[in-house]
Design brief:
Length: 848
């Protein structure tokens, strides 16, 4: 972009400041620098929605319009069109630019913070067409790069690419623009900002005016129903005290990796187990034994408090990284020894969350491991290092274990996908270690003849029943600082008699200690006499009590849970064109159950049964006929006539298979769970195109609905229906009734139809649907159902209803992209960054 004597001349020339509230362009003398400064991102809904990325350089804001918004996924290269420099005063601007003015539309301050060029670089690199820099904002963090593209033909505008560098802050592409829907300045949504000036302004001209008018009316209606004033939309806000500590679940040591898709696997972190109880900025960190160590982890507590979480209890591990880049227990000990004020960039503490036990006063421990993990990922969608959600893989544990061992890490944890959380040791969580490590009680020390060395070795023991049993010595793994620290501790624990029986040879010249210190020891094996061989000291476990230290004995790998449901007639062809049989369908549901059950378990369901195959007679069934067996449950539900009927629901993989045995292909579910039948917790907009409309039109419609929902502060997710359309799924907290639920969805669909009557229709009338897309909101009334995620469909080639990320939807060519033959790919996708937390979000309807 050409330089001028007045860098803001172009900015001022494009604007009439008598008509717009934008600040007049004045250079902020003395504020500029080439070594970094402020950065902001403004979400700007003008002729098209985009994100204006601006950085402080030489007293002005250098600016780019990023068409799709920034992505935290390194593979995403976002087009960034260079625009005129803006004044520094623009960094706080949020509001409405009147229609007819340059850039007319709504502007939200979407992110802000500081930027800096990486070492050896400066802002002058912009003139060279290449800027490598770091950001420390509310939402954008870590390393980024801007690269100028060569102009094509007579092209006058400067096209650049904005890309995230693959670092600790990189992640799924949807986490930034799809989930971050409110202003960092005022907490408002785009719709709230657009409606702020007497409701006169709009998001997108007449279409936006019509949509906003209808949605404002809906919000006012809902507020009256709730009898409380409300904004257009909001996420769940913190309130109340943090949850109480509860006993954590512990893993059983086994000798091999469990197999099968009924298990998912995580890295076993080498650190301190920690439960985080939070409510807004009130955060407490507890050890596995319930000790309040909040003060010891001050930096982490501040990061968690900044997330402004609702009431929640999170389970995880605190680690520090060693010189080799792996989590290292000794490094964590050193950080803690220096005190929380001594944390440095070289050795920061990190928190890896892996479970969610309580949310907003609701006990989640009765849910399956994988569902809790999905809810955790949704809760911490805004988190950035040093707060992480531990990654996992479904099945394929052997590969992860081999990779961890090759990388010199401790091992893996395997968890039964459908198991509840137990506050004790169980075989629903198992650990497989790469090296032998256990905890021992220190019962004594031997003098050293080496100058300056306080001791030569430590005597170790473990509790076996009521006795403390000697288990040998450890004499390596100490540096001078560790030895001096231990010597200081020993002075306070000295005693005259041995606390355990030790043979005479080993007891010579031993200084005995009261058995209170717990040490973690790595060793090769136990000798025939029960002593550790080739032992190495790793550190003290101040988070564990000596009385709890017992031998850890490897147990056989637990059997992968197998269903007792027998599938008969496995060779019967159910999908003739795909030559897929009843056995194939049963195998699909058995494998996909871990990722399907978090969405469909404990909801009233309707089944599409095709006993002779999809090409023959099929029918719906929603009532319990008593023929499905014990795995399929029933719940009495009140009908319109006041009577009650038993409806079907299921809660495990056996239930899915029992239904398949009875000829079921499809599973459709209510918008509520059986325990909260009258309080819906998800909203579905089913986009049903008229015959002749291409799938591209459906995808565009889904993206537009997604954006309008985002404008009013609602996170939504996309799902291929497996038929010809797309479902837009809006997860909700179950706090409103069915009338409110249906009314909102109806008004939303009608608002879309009113705004663009040539594209959308909100009525089932076939005469009115010609050439249009029907926004089916009728799925959102009591008793209606929608196809469940991962359900097979009774259609050609056995397609399935498949969750997708919003970014990837644009590249998918049909609603039946995946079939029951793609089980492995679907399972791998379910654990991918793009689908983390899919279908879960803590939010309420507008006006409530």
């Amino acid at each position: 972009m050409a330089k001028t004597a007045d860098p803001l001349a172009q900015y001022n020339a494009k604007r009439d400041f008598a008509l717009t509230d934008e600040p007049a362009g004045k250079v902020a003398k003395g504020q500029g620098t080439k070594n970094g400064g402020r950065f902001i991102v403004q979400k700007h809904d003008a002729t098209g929605l985009h994100y204006d990325f601006r950085i402080e350089v030489d007293d002005v804001l250098k600016s780019w319009a990023v068409t799709k918004g920034p992505s935290a996924k390194p593979d995403d290269k976002r087009l960034a069109v260079r625009t005129e420099d803006h004044p520094m005063s623009y960094a706080d601007f949020e509001g409405i630019i009147p229609q007819g003015q340059y850039g007319g539309g709504t502007i939200m301050l979407w992110d802000r913070g500081s930027w800096a060029p990486i070492a050896g670089k400066s802002a002058s690199d912009i003139d060279k067409g290449h800027l490598h820099f770091t950001l420390d904002g509310t939402r954008m963090k870590g390393e980024w790069i801007l690269i100028r593209l060569k102009p094509r033909g007579n092209e006058k505008r400067e096209n650049w690419l904005l890309r995230k560098i693959d670092d600790a802050y990189a992640g799924g592409s949807d986490d930034l623009v799809a989930r971050e829907l409110t202003s960092v300045l005022t907490g408002r949504t785009m719709a709230e900002i657009a409606a702020d000036e007497d409701g006169a302004q709009s998001l997108k001209g007449k279409k936006g005016q019509a949509f906003n008018a209808a949605m404002t009316e809906a919000a006012e209606h809902n507020a009256k129903v709730a009898k409380t004033p409300g904004k257009l939309a909001r996420k769940k806000k913190p309130g109340g005290k943090p949850p109480e500590f509860r006993q954590p679940q512990l893993a059983t040591l086994v000798d091999d990796v469990p197999t099968g898709n009924g298990w998912f696997h995580e890295i076993k972190f080498d650190g301190y187990r920690a439960l985080v109880a939070a409510s807004g900025d009130d955060v407490h960190v507890y050890t596995r034994n319930g000790k309040d160590w909040t003060d010891k982890f001050g930096p982490l507590v501040r990061h968690i408090a900044a997330l402004d979480l609702p009431q929640c209890l999170i389970d995880g591990e605190i680690v520090a990284y060693g010189k080799d880049g792996n989590p290292d227990f000794s490094s964590l000990q050193e950080v803690l020894k220096r005190g929380h004020g001594a944390q440095t960039e070289a050795t920061p503490m990190h928190y890896f969350a892996f479970d969610l036990l309580d949310l907003d006063g609701t006990d989640l421990t009765g849910l399956g491991n994988l569902e809790r993990k999905e809810r955790l990922e949704a809760l911490l969608a805004d988190a950035a290092p040093p707060i992480h959600v531990a990654d996992h893989v479904i099945g394929a544990g052997e590969k992860l274990y081999a990779a961890m061992c090759a990388a010199g890490q401790e091992g893996i944890i395997a968890k039964r996908a459908d198991a509840k959380y137990a506050g004790r040791r169980s075989k629903a969580w198992v650990k497989v270690k790469c090296t032998r490590r256990q905890e021992f009680v220190v019962i004594g020390w031997k003098e050293s003849s080496a100058k300056g060395r306080p001791f030569s070795s430590l005597l170790l023991a473990q509790h076996e029943g009521d006795e403390l049993v000697y288990k040998g010595n450890v004499g390596t793994g100490f540096n001078q600082a560790v030895m001096d620290d231990l010597a200081d501790r020993f002075a306070k624990l000295a005693r005259k008699t041995p606390p355990a029986e030790v043979d005479k040879a080993s007891a010579r010249k031993v200084h005995w200690l009261t058995p209170r210190l717990v040490a973690e020891i790595a060793f090769a094996e136990f000798t025939a006499g029960g002593s550790v061989r080739h032992a190495s000291y790793l550190g003290l476990r101040d988070d564990k009590e000596a009385k709890d230290v017992t031998p850890e004995v490897k147990q056989p790998v637990p059997d992968t849970p197998a269903s007792d449901v027998t599938i008969s007639s496995r060779d019967r062809v159910i999908f003739p064109e795909a030559k897929a049989t009843k056995g194939d369908l049963a195998d699909y549901y058995a494998a996909i159950a871990p990722v399907m059950l978090p969405h469909c378990a404990n909801r009233p369901i309707s089944l599409v049964r095709c006993p002779q195959g999809r090409a023959k007679k099929c029918f719906f069934q929603k009532h319990d006929s008593g023929s499905f067996g014990d795995h399929v449950k029933h719940v009495p539900i009140r009908e319109k006539d006041g009577g009650h009927e038993d409806y079907l629901y299921l809660d495990d993989a056996g239930g899915l298979l029992a239904c398949v045995q009875m000829g079921t292909i499809e599973f459709h579910g209510w918008d509520s769970h059986v325990e909260t039948l009258e309080r819906p917790d998800r909203m579905i907009f089913d986009l049903d195109p008229d015959e002749g409309l291409c799938f591209e039109e459906v995808k565009k419609a889904a993206a537009d609905i997604h954006q309008h929902l985002a404008d009013i502060g609602l996170v939504s997710f996309a799902m291929l229906s497996g038929g010809k359309g797309v479902h837009v799924v809006v997860p909700l907290d179950p706090g409103h009734d069915w009338d409110t639920h249906k009314d909102f969805s109806k008004r939303f669909a009608e608002a879309m139809s009113l705004a663009e009557p040539d594209r959308f229709v909100a009525t089932m009338s076939k005469a009115k649907r010609k050439g249009k897309i029907f926004i089916d909101y009728l799925r959102n009334q009591r008793g209606s159902t929608a196809v469940m995620p991962y359900s097979a469909r009774a259609r050609d080639c056995a397609p399935v209803a498949a969750p997708v990320g919003w970014d990837e939807l644009a590249d998918i060519d049909s609603a039946g992209r995946w079939t029951i033959a793609d089980t492995d790919e679907l399972l791998a996708r379910a654990a991918s960054r793009d689908l983390k937390g899919w279908g879960f979000a803590a939010q309420v309807l507008p006006g409530l």
